[in-house]
Fold these 4 entries.
Entry 1:
Amino acid sequence: AQSVSQHNHHVILSEAASLELGCNYSYGGTVNLFWYVQYPGQHLQLLLKYFSGDPLVKGIKGFEAEFIKSKFSFNLRKPSVQWSDTAEYFCAVKGNNRLAFGKGNQVVVIP
Amino acid sequence: NAGVTQTPKFQVLKTGQSMTLQCAQDMNHEYMSWYRQDPGMGLRLIHYSVGAGITDQGEVPNGYNVSRSTTEDFPLRLLSAAPSQTSVYFCASSYSTKGVNTEAFFGQGTRLTVV
């Protein structure tokens, strides 16, 4: 079964700062990659996804992620965060019908 | 479409009680799954199903049963509730197109407390 690692569980930054969240996975077969966001008290919502093609994927709300196959990584970025980006972010990897999640990054944006 | 609907939203159980968390989707998705979310642990897969009549265990299946008699419904049963099962439970469904599994759609969650 695949596993997913996310680093820096808690991130605090100011508005307009840039954000990068790391995600590494371990799985030998073909994978689909996702980033989900969970705002306080809500369910998970899809930010972006990668299946094939261009490894640089653009999602909603100005987020993007880059798939680097040789590094088994799928890092999430946003050039300039807003207070409304305060949330928990989860990387997920689907392989062999199983969708596995990382432990999440709690991001707090200070106005 | 209602999407993925979970009931109840909140539940308090006594240790040893049993109950069923309901999950229904109206998108004709083949894949359905149950996760539990605990602080600092992310989402952990309990059970999943790739179609009616087919289920399989995930990462943390002990203490839970599932069945998939229809495409729409995927209930999760707690056989004898324990305090360690206090958690937020999410149901998810996803679809396949041209052989590629796509993103999962999540329900609103069930917050379960076992006392």
Entry 2:
Amino acid sequence: KNQVEQSPQSLIILEGKNCTLQCNYTVSPFSNLRWYKQDTGRGPVSLTIMTFSENTKSNGRYTATLDADTKQSSLHITASQLSDSASYICVVSRYTGTASKLTFGTGTRLQVTL
Amino acid sequence: GAGVSQSPSNKVTEKGKDVELRCDPISGHTALYWYRQSLGQGLEFLIYFQGNSAPDKSGLPSDRFSAERTGGSVSTLTIQRTQQEDSAVYLCASTPVAGGELFFGEGSRLTVL
């Protein structure tokens, strides 16, 4: 079964601290893995997209890693800011030969506090 | 417009009424998705349009749900005889190519009383 599991479900950290969010997947055949940020009441916004051959990708203070062998990805946030408070969603894409199918994780809710 | 536009942003309706939700994708984007997000839940796939191909309706939860995309641009999601469990945020996303980066709208929050 194609699944995406994220951990932790929620996380509270102090402003300025770093954190790492995890994503494990069983989606096959793998096409790419995406991380999205979703602010409360808003639509998700893309942070990174990684293909099979990419191990790491950065977008400002966000760095995503991918281990396609173990089917794991992480999103590392450096020097967190209050504006990082949001849900972070891991999405894995598979290509069926005729269409691209996306499987969404349920997200990690991050709260950055003073 | 510059982004994906959805309307209405909020809709409150009575059980049993029909509702229509509209999505205006980014100009030139060939693929369009509808998702549903219930409170505290992940995104649930509903339907996918790609160019002139037959839509993938495999995610529609019941025959009360339908969607169309006219002229390869604007899409309308229709929910007939709404039920309380239909209450959720309905998100639309478009992408320039199949499998490409998704650009989401801000969603339509539906509340069924």
Entry 3:
Amino acid sequence: GDSVTQMEGPVTLSEEAFLTINCTYTATGYPSLFWYVQYPGEGLQLLLKATKADDKGSNKGFEATYRKETTSFHLEKGSVQVSDSAVYFCALSTTSGGSYIPTFGRGTSLIVHP
Amino acid sequence: NAGVTQTPKFQVLKTGQSMTLQCAQDMNHEYMSWYRQDPGMGLRLIHYSVGAGITDQGEVPNGYNVSRSTTEDFPLRLLSAAPSQTSVYFCASSYYGTSTDTQYFGPGTRLTVL
């Protein structure tokens, strides 16, 4: 079945450091790929997405490129802020037999120190 | 526009009790779903619905029941609560339930079963 593997956390950085959170996937067909962010005590919200190979999703300084050849969708940000501290989930979705099945990674906690 | 709302925010049950977690959305979304979030496990799909009157099982449906009588509401029923159902529950919705859709999440219900 489909699966998403993302790096384990927590990832601890100082403010203004460069961030990479790795995400790789296994899927049949042509999935769409997503990064969701969960701030403490809240539900998940979309950070960015890419729906086909070589697409780049971007939002709030975060970027990720859909790499079909390496089945990856790594999240990057050039300069993190304390307010970026949250849990980040990589996810994919496919449509199989008419059913829409989303699959989430286990989440990576990011802690940014001043 | 309230988005996706969930009630209650917190709930404590005793083993064997039943209860209903409420979920409502005001975005006229066709697709709604329930997830549970456990530490180190990411999000796992419990049940989903592609429209009023239509529901289907996700990855972990046992011990839960759903119905979808209106487009707006998608309640989740715990038939006989067990300690293994202690978790944080999220309701989500999206426009049509296609693989490119963004999911919109509620704030979650934290359930403890003693």
Entry 4:
Amino acid sequence: GENVEQHPSTLSVQEGDSAVIKCTYSDSASNYFPWYKQELGKRPQLIIDIRSNVGEKKDQRIAVTLNKTAKHFSLHITETQPEDSAVYFCAAKDSNYQLIWGAGTKLIIKP
Amino acid sequence: DGGITQSPKYLFRKEGQNVTLSCEQNLNHDAMYWYRQDPGQGLRLIYYSQIVNDFQKGDIAEGYSVSREKKESFPLTVTSAQKNPTAFYLCASSIGGLAAHTGELFFGEGSRLTVL
């Protein structure tokens, strides 16, 4: 079955710098890749997603890139701000339509 | 105010007791899900339901049971058979089922269960 690995587990960046979180997946039939943000004590919320027929998608300061050949996708956050501090989860929808989740990345924005 | 409501937010249970976590949604979503979240791990699917009176096991269903008698409600019972029940439990819903083109999940705020 599908396996999703997420790196790094913790990422600390200076406010204003960029942050990149990477995920790899194993099921080549996976066709949908969302990213969720979970602030401390709050519910996960979808921040951006990408489908397998697209290589890149942007929404203001966040972007997601997908490399189907290498089977990896990444979340890019530019001009990081304190409110970006959270745990970020990637996921992949496999050939059984199940969402398989990465273990999460704790992003810390240093002032 | 539309959304998903989970209760209780915190729950303590003695070993050997069953406990039921409530999940209610007023989003008119067809599909509902229960996930378990443990530190350092991704979300793991316990059960899901795509329509009323139907539900399917997820990856870690052992020791759990669910019902879906109403579209709005999807309660989860953690039974005494669950060997390690202490965890954070998240309920979610989506407009369509698993194969729906838009897969966005709307989550509740979670229930933290601690077994004493």
